[in-house]
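Intended use. Records like the one below are meant for learning the mapping from a protein sequence to its folded structure. Do not use them to infer anything beyond what is encoded.
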Amino acid sequence: MKLKDQLKTGWTFIVTVILFVLLAYFSTSGLYNVSNMLWGSAYLLLAVTLTFTCVNASKKFKEQGRFGTYGRLLYAAGLLSGLWLYEAIKCFF
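Structure written out for the chain above:
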């Protein structure tokens, strides 16, 4: 995919990553004391937007006949989303 198509497909994940990095910066610099509820929400948002972005991107790869890329992308999205969901659950409880 071209860069313009990638940005069009993944803009939600890009915005979420920027928010997560800002949250991590504020937390480590001591500007703001980030609660566990906010961290859990951030991890949950990362998992949801990654899954959404990867499913949309994999549809485009499937249309192009690139089934290997399609499968690997869905597998990676599921694995990483699962890890982030685990972290979110740990933060919530």
